[in-house]
Amino acid sequence: MQNDNLAMLDLAHIWHPCTQMKDHEKLPIIPIKRAKGIYLYDFNDKSYIDCVSSWWVNLFGHCNDYINTAIKEQLDNLEHVILAGFSHEPIINLSKRLCDMLPQPLNKCFYADNGSSAIEVALKMSFHYFRNLNINRNLFLSLTNSYHGETIGTLSVGDVALYKETYAPLLLESLRTEVPETQFGDYSHALESLEKILKEYGDRICAFILEPLIQCAGNMHMYNKDYIKDSIALCRKYGIQIIFDEIAVGFGRTGSMFALEQCDVVPDYLCLSKGISGGYMPLSVVITSDSIYDVFYAPYSTYKAFLHSHSYTGNTLACAAANAVLDIFQHENIIEKNKQLSLFMKKEFEILKDSSKVVNMRICGMVIAFEVITDKERPNIFIFEEGLKRGLLLRPLGNTIYFMPPYVITQDSISYVVKCLREIVELL
User: What is the biggest distance separating any 2 CA atoms in the chain, rounded to whole angstroms?
Assistant: First the structure.
């Protein structure tokens, strides 16, 4: 079949996420037949550089030989088993490896399926922790401009206007404090905002949840790491727990394996997903400590056990992929290689600053972003279409263009992306 035939069938039967389907009366649906490395290939054999890592999950390229082999080998032995009283070797190995990579006291892994579910787990776990201790806390604190997922619980701690307005009657009460405006410089006003909230509500807040360093769906806003350390120190004074949402920023995206390494902070709950399986299968984990685990460890009759489950929790094939991902990080010195690649990205993208339409260029690790000044209505749609013409999969957030490629991208491909972006920006 060709693109057009498949696109018609798609539109007849599939409702795409984050999409106004009426747009596809004009926008193409592009069925993908195969992929390799940084490239996606449609049914007409046109190639596209995956500039968004297929929504931030792919680390080492599509159809990575090493990950493919790991999944195939596992497939011949065990595809899935209930994770309740039963276990399996891939998840045991993965859990130990993750805990060994992280600072103490993070040493207990609770698995879920996807990023939103991991955040939901952490929120519930924090609330339940205080409940088990007979402490009445029922509020959560998050940053302005934040996004943590699209369940009712995760939307409740987010700050995306469209979601808040649409689902307001369903959302839980929560609090928001001001996010610093820039990666560097003064953040005293944001700390003052936080302190004011803590003085009024500090004894009612379960946890402070934040995406460290980059608010990804929040237009790739990058903010001061020193604020993170100082704000958490303030929260600790009030007995408030800390949830790090590293769903999108973990596994090397910010320049270190985990963003927490740059913040000099150990959260009470670390939420990981997206890159954990290299872009192959849904998998997420909340990593916490024995001191939190022990509050739930009690005779059944006390009803203190934590309440959350998924049918595919800790799926065996996904865990095999995740172990392969950690192998690649370990054996190929990926973090150090990425530091060099990040420097090259920064140098190349500097060219775009020559345009008066480009503002607020910023980079953190393997993520680079900027805004465009334009009078065009819905510039993201225009940029998306122009990118496709040039063989690029771009998905701007409003007028924010970002580049978050698989780590296997070459310098030549980065230069090509920049050349195309320069052409597109001048058309705005």
Answer: 68
Q: For 303-357, write each residue's pLDDT tens digit.
A: 999 999 999 999 999 999 999 999 999 999 999 999 999 999 999 999 999 999 9
Residues 6 or more apart from 127 whose CB is under 8 A from it? Answer: 137, 138, 206
Those residues whose C-beta lies under 8 Å from the C-beta of residue 218, and which sit 6 or more positions away, are: 145, 146, 147, 159, 160, 211
Distance, in Å, from the CA atom of 404 to the CA atom of 365, rounded to the nearest integer, reads 10
β-strands 205-210, 139-143: how paired? Answer: parallel
8 Å CB contact between 338 and 404: no
Domains located in the chain, CATH noted: 3-63+333-427 (3.90.1150.10), 68-331 (3.40.640.10)
Has this prediction a pTM greater than 0.85? yes
* Mean pLDDT of the residues in the chain: 97
User: Can you tell me the distance from the alpha carbon of 261 to that of 258, in angstroms, rounded to the nearest whole number?
Assistant: 6
- Residue 243 CB neighbour total at 10 angstroms: 29
SS3 content of the chain, % helix, strand, coil (to 5): 45, 20, 40
Query: ∠ at Cα 249 (254, 392), nearest 5°?
Result: 85
- Nearest-angstrom CA–CA distance, 46 and 35: 11
Handedness of CA 265, 129, 239, 177 (dihedral sign): positive
- Total residues found in the chain within this entry: 428
Helix intervals (H) in 146-240: 152-156, 161-167, 188-201, 225-237
> What span, in angstroms and rounded, lies between the C-alpha atoms of 339 and 345?
10
Q: Measured between alpha carbons, how far is 70 from 51 in angstroms, rounded to an integer? A: 26
User: How many CB atoms within 10 Å of residue 11?
Assistant: 14
Contact 149, 182 (CB under 8 A): no
Tell me the C-alpha distance between 338 and 341, whole Å: 5
Is residue 123 very low, low, confident or very high in pLDDT (cuts 50, 70, 90)? very high
DSSP for residue 297: -
Residue 185 in tokens: 């410089």
